[in-house]
Prior knowledge:
This protein is mostly helical. It has one domain (9-72). Helix content is 88%, strand content 0%. The protein has three helices and no strands. The protein is flat, with a radius of gyration of 19 Å.
Amino acid sequence: xxxxxxxxxxxxxxxxxxxxxxxxxxxxxxxxxxxxxxxxxxxxxxxxxxxxxxxxxxxxxxxxxxxxxxxxx
Length: 73
């Protein structure tokens, strides 16, 4: 946060940014939970679950390889 707001950030600014971030993440999580409650969305996700799992695994592997390469260089 100090990289964006500078080293002289006040406690009020920090609190406001923290509250905003909590609210934004909470709204996102509630929206995802509401969508997952629909049976049509659940059926669609079940059809593509294999692909989603494989893509998530590939991303995690890429992060791991990237970290290893960064540590070796």
